[in-house]
Amino acid sequence: MINDRFEVFHIKDLVDEDNTLYHYHSFYEIHCTLQGTAVFFIDGAEFLLEAGTIILIPPNVLHRIVHQTSMSFVRSYIYINSTYLQALSTAQTDLTTCFQSNDGLNSRILSIAPASLTALLLPLRNKLDKNFGTDLVYQSFLIDFLIAINKLAIEETEPLFLSRSINQNKDIATTIKYIDDHISDDLTLNKVAKEIFLSPYVLSRLFKKETGTTFHTYVLKKRLLKSKEVLRKTRSASDTFESCGFKSYTHFLRCFKQEFQLTPKEFLKEEEKHQLIRFEHFQASKHKHL
């Protein structure tokens, strides 16, 4: 890891579908496809990644690479601490702008010529040494990259989500939207199945097949991610759990601790103190630094 502010990876490994689980971060992610193609799940839909595609993912958004669709798949990841990105921003230049979708979605897709994307990332492939000033020079490369990506986002005329979305099973798309719209409600498999006119058995099997995870697991993760947002506003677990669909305070506390390895109180203290980048869902040995 470069530091607790940002991290850059360049990856050529084949996508292991069994290990690319749904995950999320407490930091911003920029996913750049440099070569090859793959299917990516985010915001309740699947999208085709190809060379030149840039996915901008805010904190706490569920996503995963579903599967690789070409022989090779070269991509770069940039992870940026939320507090750090805000600190780099100014009143004139808000570097979080590129993550702010104008089409009601939580994430954003941009596309540029593959050669242009490679050129933008090239300075970030320099290896860091311990010489005086090297870290600040590298940080300037990162800022240049962020400014360029934000300019692309500002100049975008039509959201690529509309054109890149793959024809997903309509029943599952409807189910995911229903979950998102009713996250504080009672979301049992039976109730949701009734809402979309399927049997619980069919919905359960179809959901697992299409998303790679169970209905219950998906709902629980969405509730817990929502609870982090609410906690930041209420500063109280007892004022949070019901609005996120948990029926009991103790159940919420148990699930929260199991998912984040922190109690709600510890989570709030960590947020006040600092935000560190953690990569628990990756195997460091497989990553090649830029």
Going across the major beta sheet, what is the strand order?
8-5-2-7-1-9
Tertiary shape? globular
Query: Poorly predicted ranges (pLDDT <50, ≥5 residues)?
Result: 275-290
Structural class: alpha+beta
From the N-terminal CA to the C-terminal CA, the straight-line distance is 11 Å
Residue share in β-strands: 15-25%
**Helical amount:** 25-40%
Radius of gyration: 20 Å
* Number of self-contained structural domains: 2
How many H/I helices?
A: 10
Order of helices and strands: EEEEEEEHEHHHHHHHHHE
Give the CATH topology of the largest domain.
Answer: Jelly Rolls
Give the oligomer, counting copies of the same chain as homo and different chains as hetero. Answer: single chain
CATH homologous superfamily of the largest domain, by name? Regulatory protein AraC
Number of strands: 9
Mind describing the biggest β-sheet? 6 strands, antiparallel
Tell me the CATH architecture of the largest domain: Sandwich
| Average pLDDT reading | 85
The CATH class of the largest domain: Mainly Beta
